[in-house]
Design goal:
Oligomer: single chain
Mean pLDDT: 95
Order of helices and strands: EEEEHEEEHHEEEHHEEEEHEHEEEHE
CATH superfamily of the largest domain: D-amino Acid Aminotransferase, subunit A, domain 2
Bound molecules: pyridoxal-5'-phosphate
Length: 361
Amino acid sequence: MEQAEITKDQYQIRIERVEKSRLPGVDFDNIPFGKIFSDHMFTAEYRDGHWQNLKIEPFGAIKYNPAMSALHYGQLIFEGLKAHRSADGGVNLFRHRKNFLRLNRSAHRMAMPALPREVFEVGLLKLLELDRDWVPSGINSSLYIRPFMFATDEYVGIRPSDTYRFIIFTSPVGPYYDHPVKVKVAEKYVRAFKGGTGYAKTAGNYAATLLPAIEVKKEGYDQILWLDGCRFEQVHEIGTMNVFFVIDGKLITPTIETGEILEGITRDSVITLAKEMGIPVEDRIVTIKEVIEAFHSGRLEEAFGAGTAATIAQISEIGYKGERLVLPAIESRKISNQLKAELMGIKRGLKEDRHGWIVKI
Ligand SMILES: *Cc1c(COP(=O)(O)O)cnc(C)c1O
C-alpha cells in the first residue's frame, strides 16, 4: 500500500507499509541486543545538492554497486538513540535533537553533506509512529534507533562522494551488558588524537578498536580504557561510552574540549543531573596517574561508563600495567546508582522531565 503524505512543504515522505508485521514472532522476554529489527525503515537520498526521495519502506536489504565509495574509503557516520516505553504505556523519545546536531558535526568532519533537521525529525517521528508497537515494555528494554549516512558514488578514487544515503532503522533491545565491565587501560594502541576524528561517530573509529578489543578479551577484560594518542597520559573513554570516576565524593569526567572524545548525550545528561543533585562535578582533563593514585589511596569510590546502549555500566575492575585494580562493590556506589535511577526514571516517565528531554510519540 503506497500513500503520499505531505509532512513539511518541501519534504514529502512516501510510505510503503509491510504487508504483514513480523511483530507477533518476537519474543520480547528474551531480546538480544541489536539482532531484531522493526518492520520499517526510513530512507532519503542526497543527489544534485539536496536531500530527496524520502521514504518509509519495509526493513530489508539494500543493493549497491561494488564500487560504492563508502565501502572503500569509509565516508560513513552513524548515531544511536533510544525510545522507551513509559510507565503509562506511551512512547518516550530521548533527546533526539542532540543526536541530530551530533550527526551533522560528524558529517562535517567526514566531508559529508549536512542533513536538514526536517528530514531527520520528520523521518524519525513518522517511523516511530508507524512502529510504535515495537517499543518493548520490559524494565531493562527499549527501542534502539540507528540513523546513519554513507557515500554512494560509484567511483574508485578518493574524493568526497557527490551522492549519499541516509537511513534510520530501529531495533528492540534488552540490556547491553548484563554484568559490570572490566576495562584495561590502553598501553599499545590508540583510538584518537588531537586533530583526528575522535569526536565523530564514524565507522573507521570503531573498526580500528576491534583488534585491540580481541587482545584484551583474551586477558579477561571487556573493554579498553583509551588514553590520549600522544603520551598515553590523559584518560579518554571506553568503547562506546564516556567514562566517569567518583573521587573524594566528586564526579570527574574527561573534557570533550580537545575534540578527541565523543560528545556523549548520556554524558551530558549525567553531568546535568549530578549538578542538580548537588554533586560536585569536574569536567576537565583527567590523567590516568591521578585515577590510579586515587585507587591506591582508597579514594576512588566509583567508576562507570555512560552511553546510550548501556546507559550506565559499572566498572568493576581496571587493569593497569599488569595490575588488576578491583573497585568497591557495586551496591556501595551511591552516586552512580542514584544517577542511573534518576536518568532511567526520566526516560520512562516516572520522574519529572525538568529539561525537556522527552518527546512523546
Ligand atoms: C556513542 C558513543 C558514546 C556515547 O554517546 P551517547 O550519546 O551517550 O550514546 C561515547 N563514546 C563513543 C566512542 C561513542 O561512539
